[in-house]
């Protein structure tokens, strides 16, 4: 009997969480991130403030929920590319980058508001922060599958570093996209069309002995400086406190 009751409650819980997230994204778009409070989100969603905090302990956690959603939707969208018959590395890189632009497109209008906060190295919204480890690792895994499913031979010393490099390149694309004001982010798409073959060619050439020193230096550079949750925590920088966590769906202070 207990299992049946929990199964019935789970969809309702997920619906409430989705409602709060959707409402927050709408208000961020209409009012701006900084001017939107948790109280306003709760009121618009038709839930108590405590209930809103029960699902998301701060506005930052709401944005993390958005990051998680983008990562999940992107992975689902590019699955046919990752598991299909296409083995050409250029086509796989192009498909994954264009797939991200398709998924992120509806949120382009207020992406710059998130970027202002994400650009702060101490912000939990930074793509390099420990709090962003989940979506970051999910994106790196997509790039790992891009390479492993391609017909190209990869230098063993660079095998683990290349997915991280592709993710860093994707972060550059995201930055370009944030500032792209062309119709339908056409310039971002043109960038992907130019970038994909160049990237694939560089990866293909990386296996040659003449480039081995560069390969080794790139690997060492990434090993030393690629952010990880453990590395960021060990850097000695103080972490910003998250918003207050509610013990349940009852009164909680506003942030």
Task: Walk me through the structure.
With 255 residues, this protein is an all-alpha fold. It contains 11 helices and no strands. Helix 1 packs across helix 2 (38-45). The radius of gyration is 21 Å and the shape is elongated. Mean pLDDT is 82; it is low at 1-10 and 229-255.
User: Globular, elongated, flat, extended or rod-shaped: what is the shape?
Assistant: elongated
Specify the oligomeric state: single chain
Q: Distance N terminus to C terminus? A: 39 Å
Mind describing the biggest β-sheet?
none
Radius of gyration over all CA atoms, rounded = 21 Å
Mean pLDDT: 82
Number of DSSP strand runs: 0
Q: Low-confidence spans: pLDDT under 50, at least 5 residues?
A: 1-10, 229-255
Attribute tags:
255 residues, 11 helices, 0% strand, disordered N terminus
Write the layout of secondary structure elements.
Elements: H1 2-31, H2 38-45, H3 49-55, H4 59-83, H5 89-104, H6 111-118, H7 133-148, H8 161-179, H9 186-205, H10 212-225, H11 229-233
Helix pairs in contact: 1-2, 2-3, 4-5, 4-7, 5-7, 5-9, 7-8, 8-9
Brief summary of the model shown:
The protein has 255 residues and is mainly α.
């Amino acid at each position: 009997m207990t299992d049946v009751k929990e199964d019935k409650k789970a969809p309702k819980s997920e619906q409430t969480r989705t409602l709060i997230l959707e409402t927050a994204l709408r208000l961020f778009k209409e009012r701006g991130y900084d001017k939107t409070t948790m109280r306003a989100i709760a009121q618009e969603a038709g839930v108590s403030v405590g209930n809103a905090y029960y699902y998301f302990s701060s506005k930052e956690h709401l944005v993390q929920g958005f990051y998680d959603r983008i990562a999940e939707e992107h992975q689902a969208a590019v699955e046919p590319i990752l598991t299909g018959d296409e083995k050409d590395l250029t086509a796989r890189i192009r498909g994954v980058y264009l797939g991200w632009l398709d998924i992120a497109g509806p949120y382009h209008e207020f992406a710059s508001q998130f970027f202002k906060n994400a650009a702060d190295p101490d912000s939990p919204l930074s793509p390099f922060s420990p709090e962003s480890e989940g979506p970051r690792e999910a994106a790196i895994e997509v790039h790992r599958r891009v390479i492993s499913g391609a017909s190209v031979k990869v230098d063993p010393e660079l095998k683990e570093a290349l997915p991280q490099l592709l993710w860093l390149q994707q972060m550059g694309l995201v930055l370009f996209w944030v500032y792209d004001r062309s119709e339908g982010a056409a310039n971002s798409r043109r960038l992907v069309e130019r970038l994909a073959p160049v990237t694939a060619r560089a990866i293909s050439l990386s296996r040659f002995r003449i480039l081995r020193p560069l390969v080794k230096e790139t690997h060492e550079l990434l090993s030393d400086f690629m952010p990880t949750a453990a590395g960021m925590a060990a850097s000695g920088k103080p972490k910003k406190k998250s918003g207050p966590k509610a013990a349940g769906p009852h009164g909680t202070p506003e942030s």
